[in-house]
Design goal:
With 357 residues, the chain is α/β, with parallel strands linked by helices. It has helices spanning 29-37, 40-52, 74-80, 96-101, 131-140, 163-179, 203-206, 224-236, 261-271, 288-296, 316-325, 339-355; strands spanning 3-4, 8-12, 18-22, 56-58, 61-64, 67-68, 116-120, 145-151, 184-192, 211-215, 242-243, 274-278, 300-304. The chain contains 12 helices and 13 strands.
Length: 357
Amino acid sequence: VIAQGKTKSSIVSDKGINVDIRVIVKDEFPSAINYFTGSKEHNIRLRQIAKEKGYKLNEYGLWKNENRIKLRDEKELYKYLGMKYIEPEMREDMGEIELAISEKLPELVGISDVKGVVHVHTNYSDGKNSIEENIRFAKEKGYEYIVISDHSKAAYYANGVDEERIRKQWKEIDELNRMVKGIKIYKGIECDIMQDGSPDIDVSVLKDMDVVIGAIHSNLGMSEEAATKRMLSAINTGMFDIIAHPTGRLLQRREGYKLDHEKFRQTVTERGIVIEINSQPERLDYDWREVIKGKREGCKFVISVDAHAVNQIDYLRYGVGIARKGWLERNDVINCMSVNEFDKLIRKFKERRNNGR
């Protein structure tokens, strides 16, 4: 305990995180939760709008002529201000208030909308669990399909698979698809994007894959120009369906490489490539600010787990949080598709890879 008072205490958790605990009286709660959720920019705009309508708004309530208006919840607060309720993730004063006033807010994606698990590592590379253990876990969680995507051979430090081991894995997946009902297993790979943008796995093998996830894992200190050239070259090979963790960042450890995001998003949209939102807590990459821009520009996304153990499939909720903060709706996210819809998308992926464009 750092500090303690009648209505507020400050503590440090056993993991070193500072936490403020506040006790709020019932009548103050709707405005207090709104205020402390923020952001600061969103709060300022709400106070301005309240003032224009003859109210005063602060963390203690919404006031009219020195009388506090009794609010049931946050939704009623927004109603008094002449707008639809704004989900907490969107509150950044980045256009959400205007959309709320005009009643054009997006219907944000939720975790129950996600039908398939994408980007799963097994003990073929650096995952802890077998293919079967992963698919049975995913099936128990109610998912319709799963994309197995072990590291490719360039990721030698992660026991990356070569062409021979890939074919061995395919045989196991075929057998499991026959044996395990109620979930479909797709053959995928997290394929390294080399310095010149080429894949590190033979094209003849990639053409038979269901899903090819491209990722940069080397030379992360390159310039923005070099990174952009490498990324665009990779996209233009026609061999990649999804671009994983597009900046390579590791939160609180590594910033990631610079990228011309506008060129990147324009190219993936033109080529029908999907941008990953990586649910790993240390990644959460693509950044939510870029996701908002991508949605406006017509990009498609996948909320992937990048799981290296079965329990990490549950990391999906973190990626969904980033997707919601990026204003994404169900139709923006490919693994919100049913298994039948996803099958059709896989056929398009394969067609592009086999045509080379």
